Amino acid sequence: MSTPVSEDLARLAELTGGTPSAGRLWTLLWFSDRPLSLEELADRAGLAKSGASITLRRLVDARLARRLPTGTDRRSFYTVSDSPWAVVETWLRTSLVPELEILQRATGLGLAQAGADDNRVLIERFTAWRGFLTEAGRIVDRVLDEIPKEAGPGGGTPR
């Protein structure tokens, strides 16, 4: 499937650290009205089954897709995540929050070193960054507090 949507989602996947194939697989799931097998997804995306399997595992880990119970058919079937809120929450908790924490530690160390060197330019820089990161952390915490629990398509109430 090579459409403007699949190209956009492939680009989005790249921008967020994924691969274009992740964007293509997610597009196939997003535009399917039924679960798709690993084989069908690999074939439609033009990927080897092994590569599609690895990429789908990453999509499942990011909660962008769900792997369905196999039942009597031993094949693996996938569908798009039912909850955009779950996707956002996973991204915030597994990507943004750790990045903010790393930057917060780095600015603390930078500020300590700048203070020891009495470097006013760096002291101002690291102080400004620490203030920004502290406020950004508060904003993320508020967003996480507002994410609806049991969020499904269009549903849920704040936590």
Distance between the termini: 38 Å
Number of strands: 5
**What share of residues is helical?**
55-70%
Shape: elongated
Strand content: 5-15%
In CATH, the homologous superfamily of the largest domain goes by the name Winged helix-like DNA-binding domain superfamily/Winged helix DNA-binding domain
User: Averaged pLDDT, please?
Assistant: 87
Number of domains: 2
CATH domain topology of the largest domain = Arc Repressor Mutant, subunit A
Strand order, sheet with most strands: 1-3-2
What is the helix tally?
Answer: 6
Q: Over all CA atoms, what is the radius of gyration?
A: 21 Å
Give a written overview of the molecule.
With 159 residues, this protein is mainly alpha-helical. It has 2 domains: 4-80, Winged helix-like DNA-binding domain superfamily/Winged helix DNA-binding domain (Arc Repressor Mutant, subunit A, Orthogonal Bundle), CATH 1.10.10; 84-158. The chain has helices at residues 4-15, 20-30, 38-45, 49-61, 84-117, 120-146; strands at 36-37, 65-68, 77-80, 148-149, 157-158.
